[in-house]
Automatic annotation (TrEMBL):
Belongs to the TUBGCP family. The keyword Cytoplasm applies. This is Spc98 family-domain-containing protein. Keywords: Cytoplasm, Cytoskeleton, Microtubule. It comes from Dimargaris cristalligena.
Amino acid sequence: MTPSVVADEAQISDLIKKKLARDASQMQNALRFSQLYARIQSKDVLTQRWSILYLLYSLSNSNAPADSNLAPARPPQPRPLSKYVDHTTAQPASPAPLSQLVPSTSTASELDLMTDLVYAFQGIDGQLIHYDRHQGAFRLPDSCRMDAPVRALVHHLATLGEYFRQVKGYIVLMRKTPSVGHVVQSFTAYLDQELTEHLKFVALLENQLEATATDASAVWTMAARTGLTLRRLKVWLQPAFKKLHFFAQLAEKCRDKRAGPILNEIHIYTDHGDPFIRDLANDILKTISVPFYEIVEHWIYNGELLDPHQESFIAVISESNTNAWKSKFELSVLNIPIFIQTVVATKIFLIGKSVHFLRFHCQDGAWINQQCRVLRNEIVLSYADSFAVEVSIDRVYRTVCRRLLDVMFNKYKLMDHFWAMKRYLLLGQGDFVQCLLKSIGPELSKPAGQVYRHNLNAGMESAIRASNAQYEDPVILRQLDFHLLQKANGDAGWDIFELQYVVPPPMDQFLLQESIKPYSKLFAFLWKLKYVEHELSKLWRKQTTCSRTVRRVPFLAGDIHRCHIATHEMTHFLNQLQCFILYEVIEKAWTAFMYRINKGLDDLDLLIAAHKVYIMSITKLLVHKRVNYLQGMVKILDVIFQFRNAVDNLYDFALMEANRYSASSTKAATTTRSTRKPGGNTNNPPSAAENSETPRVPERLLVIRQQYTTAIETFQRRVTDLLTNLTEQQDANLKFLAVRLNFNEVYQVPVAASSSRSRMSLNGSFSSVDGHQSA
């Protein structure tokens, strides 16, 4: 019994055309055959066209030599395809026909299926296998009857074509999308190259299928020998399945991603459990990370960011040269590839920023060019060796950042400017401050509208010449200036005057207004503190010089005594507050700042951060997050100034009364002498009642008493409130300030605050104080 043969007219015509097309000399014959076959199909004269074609095809192969070579069992050179045969029948003695031998339940031969699969592997529809766009897969039509395992196997093999179409679609989409970036372009080029290799392999399969279809003598024995079958094709295509499936996954995940996110997505697979996928991911990253590292390399060596598609983790914020250090470039943490540690990315960012700053703001391009030639041969920037990248970046980071700090400290004398701001803006240069108070004090005592800059300029120059500031570096003195704040109703010159230090370039690129603003706030408070102290000193001098004169006014003795005590109390408060701020706060913070610098800073950002910590450690003690002590102290200074005005009025009144008493005494003595008669007779002396008569208190004195009494009571109340807030804080420095201001517990602090204060000790030398003074 012979195996059944499927009468497929289209198949036999294709075999004849392929046979003629194999020989370049018979291309004309192949074209002629197609024309003749078309004419036969258009007419109904011949009813057995398949039998005639099959006979002609068999006769054309009758003189061809049989292929006696065995087919190899591996995919590089696949042998011609076998046929599905009915193994229940006996094998014929003569070679079987070249038609497909299939089970009786199937209408498609294995050769037809594999021929269509070859098309499907290229993403092309075949005669039987078509791409279903709704399902997104290649499918056999339901009308094509075959066994379920065969159908499942064909569908499984056809998924390779689905992967091909997905990857090809991604490549086409990215090439049509403008400005995708160099990393995406490199990725698509890699995928395109891999698809080309895939097509080469498919071409080998297609050649084997063509050879199989033309070799009639080998058809029957192919299945029994080692030829290509659907199952063997599945085994051979396993590497291609893995590769294209992986590429299709990447194409789907990276469709809307660019640069860093794509690198991150692929890098995840470098930890995959399958060595094939792991090695493939590493190979992809080595190729497509080249543009990324080229951007990093140019940034490190030249300080310029050549990144038109924003593919790196460095972004240009502004093209302006103002605030070039902080606001021109930005580190985008979200775009840092996961195979680069954040510390390494930060160093890369600082290297390029430092090189840019040295080249364009410090005019140190010669050193940059010299170092580039040296470091370019030593640095490794490649995905293949991440450890070498970290070591290289660390070495360049230390070299470049150390150079920038050396230029700042030595060439531009940055520490001299820090020191100058401390001495002048924080009033650490005492002789200059005293001379300045004396020289511009009279001008600042005028109303704000009557204060003129040229008068203050003369006072500033006079204070510099009269103090040790005259020996200062001229560069420092040129930066020292002042400006007048906006005037308000009732302001005096003291309220609008502010000393200013203009930071020279290139330091002004990182010591910005927000860095200098705390100095202005501290200067305003310290300047007012000095001003009030200066006024109290003038008041004390007035009290001392007028003490003998005002003794002539007996009814003012109590007022004078009380004002003396209050003046000393306020002077004590000012002295303790100044000592605490200047020595315990400013000097302590400065010492810590110097320690950080002398210990060694790695880059300019750390120096800026250390300076910020220095200035913030001063302001945080005065401007607490819950209580603004600075504002409370300013209110106390305002009260002291009101007291000074009231006492000044009191002494003006006392001097006036003393002069009146002196004039009355002189007039009484003159009257007594003029009324004395010859012979010793005189007028009757004043009676005792007249001498004991109490003078009436003037209305002006009552007003003055009310003023200084209110000032004293307000001062004590606000100091008590300040002490209460200080002793309730956890900061030991604030509690220590409360101890200094109320060492003898003259102010009645509430019990809870007093108990906390009693536990404080001065450098461990205070013993515990129990309770508080009762009223």
